[in-house]
Amino acid sequence: MFFICVLKACSLLLHVVLCFEDNDIVRVNGKVDPKWDFDVITLEHVFSDLEQEDAAKSAMERIRDALMDGKPARSVTLTDFEKDAVNHLCLLTYETGHICGKCCRI
């Protein structure tokens, strides 16, 4: 899971597949098979994306319920994973600071 998190922090992901024999490289299936390697990694990424989507969906349902009750999005407790999943939405009531000032005449 840690490795996938590092990948998600990247701006660009390049998938390099090895297509040659090398006795120093241990292969899970014991042979050079670039298509198999590519398919396995792609499937891992698909599972990770589905997990992220599930987290976002769950978080958004709870945030929507809070908003419909007139409460700000920040009133919903989210895991770090859920926060990452909904962060791109830029919800105005999620992270808001308040400054109170007093007007006075000079």
From TrEMBL:
Source superkingdom: Eukaryota
Keywords: Signal
Signal peptide limits: 1-19
Gene3D superfamilies, sorted: TGS-like domain
Any one cellular-component term (Gene Ontology): cytoplasm
MF terms (GO), sorted A to Z: ATP hydrolysis activity
UniProt-listed PANTHER family: OBG GTPASE FAMILY, OBG-TYPE G DOMAIN-CONTAINING PROTEIN
Name of the protein described by the UniProt record: Uncharacterized protein
Organism, scientific name: Populus alba x Populus x berolinensis
